[in-house]
Write a structure and sequence with these properties.
Its main location: nucleus. The protein is α+β, with helices and mostly antiparallel strands and 481 residues long. It is built from 15 helices and 14 strands. 42% of the residues lie in helices and 17% in strands.
Length: 481
């Protein structure tokens, strides 16, 4: 019953419950929120419907009228989520106990500028599992960690579903290694990335709810969950666990923006000194889970507090330099309507890249890198960078129906002059230098020939002068002069 829930709720959480009830059009015994106000407040009625401006008693009274089983479960989840937030907030700010190295990494994760945006889940929904943070005193004594990695496929309805889950503890012992049936029609197994085929899932009966039960047993109060870009895994698993370490958040990088995050592959090379997988090879879920845990253990042992130098890559395919990536584009927008953002580019081609339920992305392909760069420069939009330091612009366009949509257009390389073009320029300069050297050598040869000719003429003149001097001497003796 919702009446039991309200006993421990403060006004902040009651306001959240009522706002959720408004959004979901949840009805109590006396109707929706405005209906309730009409009958319980003769003075203002529903004219003052903002929950934050109502008393705690009015808010609690409305919540107590909600009796629907699914609605009560939704409210229970929201209360549990609020309690977890408060516990973690207290742990971060008010604890008098010394901070453990593991808790420091939890704090680094939560202080990252991208944390709130990426870890805000709709976990009050009925198909989500919310783990308990637990009592602060017990949490502070626990530094146990497990690392998780998932592989996801794209389903026909546009959602991404989990098909493989691996979990290891800090001793690298396997805690979970399961294939998962997505229970949906799969449109793309992404085998080149996941390494999973339709045949692999043929006789798999384990579903997401089974995985949630197994993970909930592992994620006891105080347990620290480790992952790389962990929010993606939690979103797919539909699990809200607050005490986390995200390895994409805990390292800093030289000459990179604060929100820059290196890939797991790059971090393994830069921090651990080994290659996670061969170039082009599919992911191995268990290897990725172990690599993530190794990164945390390396951070705990060696610190890595100084920014890590990330070498400029020169592995961008030359064909990619002719492209711009259009992403975070609403799935309802026709790609043809995007051509208007490139009004002077007659040769641009739009190629779909990835589609989800709500968003899509595409490549704008030009005839050469120069045209791609020129098209980006001409775009009217707010200039910024993505998490990899690549320049992108927030662009808006008006559709035929008058609707305005916004999306990002991004370059395929960092803002530094592309390495491939640098190499090409160097080659051109080298050729030019060789030509200059040849030209210089040719000029020197011509000058030498001229000098030799002049020297030869001087020698001839010297001979002539000597001959004339001999004649003059002979005439002088003959005439007795």
């Amino acid at each position: 019953m919702a009446e039991d829930i309200t006993a421990t709720c403060d006004k902040e959480v009651l306001v959240k419950i009522v706002k959720l009830a408004q959004t979901r059009k949840i009805k109590g015994i006396e109707g929706e929120w405005k209906d309730f106000l009409q009958s319980h407040d003769k003075k203002f009625g529903s004219s003052l419907s903002d929950p934050s401006r109502r008393s705690i008693d009015i808010l609690a009274a409305f919540v107590k009228t909600i009796t629907g089983e699914e609605d009560v479960k939704l409210i229970t989840n929201l209360v549990k989520l609020h309690e977890n937030y408060k516990s973690m907030e207290f742990l971060m700010k008010n604890s008098q106990h010394p901070e453990s190295p593991e808790q420091k990494l939890v704090r680094l994760t939560m202080e990252h500028p991208e944390y709130l945006k990426r870890y805000s889940f709709p976990s009050y929904n009925e198909d989500w599992v919310i783990t308990r943070v637990g009592k602060i005193s017990k949490v502070l004594k626990s530094n146990a960690m497990v690392a998780v990695d998932c592989e996801m496929v794209l389903c026909q309805d546009g959602t991404e579903e989990v098909v493989k889950v691996c979990v290891v503890d800090q001793n690298m012992e396997v805690k979970l290694d399961k294939l998962v049936n997505p229970m949906k029609v799969v449109s793309d197994y992404r085998t080149d990335i996941t390494g999973i085929t339709e045949e692999d899932l043929k006789d798999v009966s384990c579903c997401l709810s089974d995985i949630q039960i197994l993970l909930k047993k592992l994620l006891k109060p105080g347990m620290i969950l480790v992952g790389h870009s962990l929010h993606n895994d939690l979103q797919a698993l539909k699990i809200d666990h607050r005490r986390v370490i995200d390895t994409s958040f805990i390292f800093s990088f030289l000459d990179r923006p604060r929100h820059y995050s290196a890939s797991l592959y790059d971090l393994c090379k830069l921090v651990l000194g080994f290659e996670l997988r061969k170039e082009g090879a599919p992911h191995v879920c268990m290897d990725d889970a172990r690599a993530t845990m190794k990164l945390v253990l390396a951070k705990l042992e060696h610190g890595f507090d100084e920014p890590i130098a990330v070498p400029l890559k020169d592995d961008t395919p030359e064909s990619d330099l002719t492209k711009l990536l259009i992403h975070k584009l609403p799935a309802t927008v026709s790609l043809k309507e995007l051509l208007k953002i490139f009004p002077d580019m007659d040769t641009v081609e739009l190629q779909p890249f990835k589609t989800s339920k709500s968003n899509q992305s595409a490549f704008a392909i030009f005839k050469d890198p120069t045209w791609a760069s020129k098209a980006f420069d001409m775009l009217d939009g707010e200039l910024g960078e993505d998490s990899g330091g690549r320049p992108q612009k927030l662009v808006s366009v008006e559709l035929k129906g008058g609707q305005n949509v916004s999306f990002f257009v991004r370059k395929m390389t960092s803002k530094e002059f592309p390495i491939i073009l640098k190499k090409r320029l160097a080659q051109v300069e080298m050729k030019g230098e060789c030509k200059r050297q040849k030209a210089d050598k040719s000029n020197v040869c011509e000058h030498i020939k001229e000098i030799e000719q002049l020297q030869h003429k001087l020698q001839e003149k010297d001979q002539e002068i000597k001959s004339l001097q001999k004649i003059l001497s002979s005439l002088t003796r003959k005439h007795g002069l």
